[in-house]
Amino acid sequence: MTEKPEQNAHPPGVLRLAALGIGSMVGAGIFALMGEAALLAGSAVWISFALGGVIALLTGHSFVQLAVKYPSRGGLVEYLVQAFGVGVFSGACSLLFYISQLIGMAMIALAFGKFSARLLAIEDNLPLAERLLACGLIIGLSALNVIGSKVLSRMQRNMVIFNLTLLTGFTIALGLFSDPPQPSTGSDIGAMAVLGSLSLTFMAFTGFAVISNAADRVANPQRDLPRAMYLAIGSVMALYVAMALALAVAVGPESMSSEGATLLVSAARNQFGEVGYYILLLTAIAGTTTCLNGGLFGAANITYSLAEKGQLPPRMMREVHASTRGLIVTAAMAILLVFLFDLSAVAALGAATSLMVYLLVNFGALKLIDASGMRLLAIRASIFSCGVAILIWVIHSFRTNPGALGVFATFLVGSLLAEALLQRILKRRVQANKT
User: Which single residue of 6, 131, 276, 323 could bond 327 by disulfide (Cβ 3.0 to 4.6 Å)?
Assistant: First the structure.
């Protein structure tokens, strides 16, 4: 039996949809991603964020076109099945998407561990302490979700608004109280280093896909979805570029290239003293907590949906108090990733995996959407830009971190093999919604 979309007496308008997208993009991830991208691009990271925003705008166009034609809360998973049919390949694509969510959660947890270790002034066995703190957060939040606590879910929306307000104010304050800006053009860094950070900066935008998931509740999706998508991505792009420019001025090229995930809190200390440092540090800790809680909740829904479609074992749908077995399995796999990789490696793998999934969605748009003129050009440009970004990541990783490239290839091949094995054992196939 097919579920009917909820009837909403007050369907979301452009501003509400844009706010939803902005909240999903400007999460706790930017606290870590800004610094990780700056490790590669230095003070020229603003260029990388601008390019990442362009790729996001192009890919957002593909999502909008698919959402109008296939309005479904399944979103990305539904588009992949519609584009590539029911079979091993579409199933593997969806598994790859699930893996990208796992990596994202591991990244957020490791960022929490890094910020918490700073708050607790831990110096001995720092990498192990950060991992233990990250795992403690995953276990604690998973337990709360299983028990059914609503405290964190109530904090979710307020924390997003607070994060957005604080980061905007922080960026403005840096711009006002720093010396006149002299941002790097990237020529002193090297074009490959700047472009090598592109996958990371694109990852900071990936929350925009949530806008397309609301297509079945929008009164006029053909008009409102594009406006909301471009407004949300454009606003976030402006914030990220402005923040990167302000940071380059405030901390200088040397710190931009060396601080890593703690770049934002270090800049707060340099400019606003201990008070600013602890405000931003506590905000980062609270933000990563609520962000990971949202990730766990979403992952539980993803595993349920994939099991319902025949892509994961049916036992993933079984209830465990207020949640499902899928949540427990997801938490265990996220913990495994926390101990296998450090923050930089997890961020790089998550960025590359996300880019690959979005590239497949763009190919799906080219296949499914009867477009011409500027629309067709935008879809082709989105395929080209995502493809080039992945290629640059592969070349850069081959030169600097071949191990990450091997793990990424393992994820790709593993998704295909796992899906083929699951379909053989379970004798079930991914099901597409009828249109």
Answer: 323
CA distances from 217 to 67, 108, 198, 206 (A): 11, 30, 33, 21
Both tokens of 166, joined, read 């604080």
Q: Kindly list the structural domains of the chain, giving each domain's residue range(s) and its CATH number in brackets, ordered by start.
A: 14-425 (1.20.1740.10)
HEC string of 266-335 equals: HHHHHHHHHHHHHHHHHHHHHHHHHHHHHHHHHHHHHHHHHHHCCCCCHHHHCEECCEEHHHHHHHHHHH
Would you list the DSSP string of 343-400? HHHHHHHHHHHHHHHHHHHHHHHHHH----HHHHHHHHHHHHHHHHHHHHHHHHHHHH
Written as six digits, the tokens of 402 are 């071949």
Beta strands in 255-300 (DSSP E): none
In angstroms and rounded to an integer, the radius of gyration of the C-alpha atoms of the chain is: 21
DSSP structure class, residue 9: S
pLDDT tens for the chain, residues 1 to 435: 334 444 455 677 888 888 888 877 887 678 888 888 888 888 889 999 999 999 999 999 999 999 888 887 667 778 888 888 777 887 788 888 888 888 888 988 998 999 999 999 888 888 899 999 999 999 998 888 777 656 665 666 677 778 888 888 888 988 887 665 455 544 456 677 788 889 899 988 988 888 887 777 888 888 889 999 999 999 999 999 999 998 888 887 777 877 787 888 888 888 888 998 899 888 888 888 877 877 776 666 677 666 666 666 666 555 554 456 778 888 898 999 999 988 888 888 888 998 999 999 999 999 998 877 888 999 999 999 999 999 999 998 888 888 888 999 999 998 888 888 877 776 655 555 555
Contact 145, 320 (CB under 8 A): no
CB count within 10 Å of CB 325 equals 18
Distance (Å, whole) CA 365 – CA 345:
30
